[in-house]
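Posting for a labmate who doesn't have an account.
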Amino acid sequence: MVKILLTGAFGNVGTSTLNELIKMDHYIRCFDIPTKANKRKARRYKKHLDKVEICWGDLRNLSDLEHAVKGIEVVIHLAAIIPPLANIKPEFAEPINVGGTKNLILAMKKQQIPPKLIFSSSVATYGDVRHKGADYIIKVTDEFNPSSHDHYARHKIKCEEMIRSSDLIWTIFRFSAIMPIDQGVDPVMFDVPVDTPIEHTDTRDTGLAMARATTNDEVWGKTLHIAGGEKCRVTYEEFVGRLLEAMGIGRLPNTAFGKEPFHCGFMDTTESQRILQYQKHTFDDYVQDTKSRLAFARILAIICRPAVRSWLLKKSPHYKNHMKAMKAYLKPKRKSTRAKRSKQAKISAKTTKKPIQAKPRKTRN
């Protein structure tokens, strides 16, 4: 049994990791903020009180982390503010993402025997890779190139640098796109260009990888990719299209999606898969899971499809801009056509000769 601190325990990957750690009979101290949603999730683990301890706290408070790391052998650090909030409010996210990681490192180093650290980084650090080709495979040796607006990616880069310069035993996992099992419709989906390569990773597979890493000596000191593998690689057009079909909504026009740089890409997972053997689910599995989970809602969506699609398209700023541009393009054309017809009518009226009326002859009486 390994004593593990799991930060962000009740998030998407956090719960998947927690479930796998419980199966492996480890002792897990769950660290997260005490929101209503997190407390509700925590109640599900009451039957595992012999293995699971709940530790509420805030990454910004060093004292909370000093308490959380006591007696711990391995820390799995998943807690973070993720996009879109991390990029909308970077001034709020950075003290948690970067400052929180700094506090965690300090708390760990204060221990008589510092625990090992597993850190979750992101494919976002590589930025937009579309210019490298549709089939390009990102390697861990590729340079960082975050998009100009991607504060989240910069947070992860700063954290990686801090971890490498610490005296801790560590491993860094850069995650690909990881959708939760209960993924719904999120307006951020419209910001991804349709030709973006996406390698989906099932959240359960990610949890399995994190759990197996805690007891595998090969991972330490390495930076590895966590992604779904060849059967999870699609373009974003295919990714979002098939999921919308599974929801009963149907594919949306490409004009609903943005064109600005966006991270994601196919990732080399040869080494991580060899060590951890975690790739169990395919993208087809995820689509089927979505269809099964939304069985009744899917029927309603099909029945009300025009209204649902209209509602959804209104959430896309890109589609709104497209429709405005179309209206602006067609409006002057209509005006010029009407003006042209009016001008032609005037010219026609001027050139048309009036019929000459014959004067009545005078007759002699």
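Reply:
Got it, the structure tokens are right above this. The mean pLDDT is 91.
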